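Limitations
The structure tokens in this dataset are predictions for the assembled complex, not deposited experimental models. Users should treat interface geometry with appropriate caution, especially where small molecules or nucleic acid strands are included. An illustrative entry is reproduced here so readers can see what is and is not provided.
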Amino acid sequence: MKALYSLFLVFALAAFALLGAGTLGMEKAFGLYIPFLAVAVFVVGFCLRVVDWGKSAVPFCIPTTCGQQESLPWIKQNKIENPSTTCGVVIRMLLEILTFRSLFRNTKVDLHAGTRVAYSSSKWLWLGALAFHYAFLITVVRHLRFFTEPVPGLIATLDAMDSLLQIGAPTLYLSNLIFVAALLYLFLRRVVVPQVRYISQVQDYFPLFLILGIAFSGIFMRYFAKVDIISVKQLTMGLVTFSWVIPDGIGAMFYVHIFLVSVLLAYFPLSKLMHMGGVFLSPTRNMNCASRKYRHVNPWKFENVHYHTYEEYEDEFREKMVEKGLPVDKPLAEGAE
Amino acid sequence: MSDLPRPEALFANIDYTPPKADWMDVPTVIKPGRYCYAANPDSVNYVGLPHAHKWNPLDDDWGLPENWQEIIFNGLRERLHKFRSFKIFMDICVRCGACADKCHFFIGSGDPKNMPVLRAELLRSVYRGEFTTFGKILGRFAGGRKLTADVLKEWWYYFFQCSECRRCSVFCPYGIDTAEITIIGRELLNLIGLNIDWIATPVANCYRTGNHLGIQPHAFFDMIDFFCDDIEDITGIRPEPSFNKKGADILFITPSGDVFADPGTYTCMGYLILFEYLKREYGLDVTWSTYASEGGNFGFFTSHETMKRLNSKMYMEAKRLGAKWILGGECGHMWRVIHQYMDTLNGPDFQGSHMETPVNPITGTVFKNAAGTKMVHIAEFTADLIKHGKLNLNKKRNANIHLTWHDSCNPARGMGLLEEPRYVARNVVEKFTDMPEGTIREQTFCCGGGAGLNAGENDELRMMGGLPRANAVKYVHEKYGVNMLGCVCAIDRAVLPNSMEYWVPEVDVCGLHELVGNALVFPGEKERETDLRGEDLPGEDE
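Predicted assembly:
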């Protein structure tokens, strides 16, 4: 049901763009103003969220240690999973962000006869997530050719590598295939795996469909509608150089594509997609684990804290302590009254 | 314990299929056997925590203050600002589900609200519904809901079904730590007096008498003295421990559970034997304190502030006695607090300037890893002694033991104490076999009763939560003949014997220093006939 809502919402958004840019001829709004606004919302929103997180304190040093600590010199420390140096923390973070280290540990639990529980390695989510994120990244970087003139060599090379298979004209991007396959996998597991379905919300399905919509509209333009790339680039270059133009002959599908991208950008800072920024700030991963070696300072103070001092303790128990020969600070007679 | 089903029946009831209805529409029913009794108001009052009142979780009316919602909202707002962890964990979960089947309470119960992601959503949904723009406008469509009395009860029920073991956070791609969410959740519940007695009363005891069990100084002395009698009977050597001794080099603090209940008591005897040996051989000067007679810290399960108040005694006592550094006994969450909180919480206020980076006076080893906190784990200490050949150990005395090792959650995931205890264990027992990968080290399972949940009344919950650990023990028991489960945690030593008896009755539980105490040979000591438990020693020539 939640998946259907989301699907419907994405269809409605696509229809809105078709209607607006196609039928009503509001190309300027859909091709220029909305994308521009969306980018602004994205940049400002993203920054605000990160600043907002940054304003919250980190009172304690609470990394999750996932390996042997630094202790005695002859015990081999796991310098990455339980880092005690900044370098170790940086490597830990890089592994987390670039290779999804934690997700790689994923296991699956099964119950068997005879009160037996078994765990098996389960790397599909890791693979799907990695494929999705890298395909997305490559796609975004490839798109920079629309916003640069001349196109930097690096982007051109990436483009060439992505079309390595040399199938069809225009050549098929490998990342297109991986992107769609990974998205479908991520969607299917949400629907098929009972626990994941149970925890999934509209806001989980919506970005999936939205990104699928973006992918499909892009693929349609490239391989089927064979949109006039020159005109598109005229428009996109206009966007980044602030010389806004709407060239003729860009099909309606382009406006659907760019509108869905705009929605994604604007939705981003308000949603769980902010995990992109949050992962860098997660205190269980980005802190030095050697918390007995270096003191972490809490920026805020506990106020009006009451302690039970030794004096109060001895006052209550002095007699019993003396009886057992336990040393006391004040002799019995003095504190007895 | 009478209502507890047999293990086969309990296991057969585990069903991982979630209900048809949306989780927000599934009402929470508080089931006997899965919850702990409400806090005694006297205990809550003793430490001056807010809203002490008598209430019963099974009643409709929990006697909440009239403005309870306002109190929770203010508390929530304050904590979002004070804890970046909490704020980020509220915002960035993508519900990928990687954590879903990592929780021992979920594995053992199948209750979907025990999936870490959903446990967090219980609070996150209110955060969205009451604090975020989207959630306020769109409500459930944006995954938000309002804070009602039912939601509050759900929080209480499930935040006291989380043992803050952090296993889920190992698997989370953003490191979202449910412990952090549970800690804050419980802190909020404490603002309106909704604690459980198995936490609140130990906290009050610890505040007053220095330990959770409320043992007063003379009784503490007697209990240790009693162990010394036993040790004298078994070994012919009588330890002469010192108490509250000013000028001692090292202050020793261990969880009071070790002084109080089997099999922790045997571990305590192990410490006494070790210290006596080191005193006689090398002149080690260690003292026990009756004022700081608790290593554990149930304040950690109450609020950060309560944790600070209880923890402060360690530094205050080290300062008063003039101890150079503190040696800590075998305990789980105690070490999370010491490793990750203590120096921040109380270092600036109470750490004496005379304290030094810990040095093992016998080996000369400098514990640089404890340079800030000035507190060393006894497994680190003993491992260092063994490495330098300072202990005369006879493994044969433990020849009847085939040991496996339970990494306690907090030392594993909040510290990284993995190899030290294994090194010690391998030097005191002949047969050692680890449990399968994925159930040990950083992926270790909770005993089922951590974070203050080891009450009697929630036995069903504990047995469910204990299943994954017990299951791995059963595997090595059946395959390799393992008959002893070692651990460095007092809660483990209290919880695991029950759980073993229920799931794997052939396996016993011990602490690390019980094994050390058995193996340690004093110069000229009499031939021992029994181990510290009073059981016959295995024949030496087998």
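Some entries come with short summary sentences. For this one: Chain B has two domains: 21-195, 201-519.
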